Amino acid sequence: MNWVKALLLLSVLVLGCADLATTNRILELGFGEANPFMQMAQAWFGVWWLIPKLGLTYLVIALLWRSESLAKIALVVAFCSTPVINNLVILAGAS
């Protein structure tokens, strides 16, 4: 496997974990989840809502693994960074 592709796939995993951590911090501060699918997961699974969230991250990685286009993988990585950046902006505004 190409090392660039491996780094991009690892980035998706790191961004998924960062999204989970920042979302948890936002929830601790009393704010709510903006994503309706994750709201539903939180309602159904309670504290175990992280299972479907990380499951989705692993699904994205598995699908990207099959891709041959580094540009398309990089685009998905950029898209995955959006919720993390948004969460960081919310956390910065909350403090």
Topology as a string of helices (H) and strands (E): HHHH
Strand content: under 5%
Number of strands: 0
Stretches where pLDDT falls below 50 for ≥5 residues?
none
Give me the Rg, rounded.
14 Å
* Largest sheet data: none
Cα distance spanning the termini = 43 Å
**What's the tally of helices?**
4
**Which of globular, elongated, flat, extended, rod-shaped describes the shape?**
globular
Mean pLDDT: 94
User: What structural class should be given to the helix and strand makeup?
Assistant: mainly alpha
Helical residues, percent: over 70%
Please provide a written account of the structure.
Helix content is 81%, strand content 0%. Helix 1 packs antiparallel against helix 3 and helix 1 (3-28) packs parallel to helix 4. With 95 residues, the chain is mainly α.
Show the helix and strand layout:
Blueprint: H1 3-28, H2 36-45, H3 50-65, H4 70-94
Helix pairs in contact: 1-3, 1-4
List keywords for this structure.
4 helices; mainly alpha; globular; 95 residues
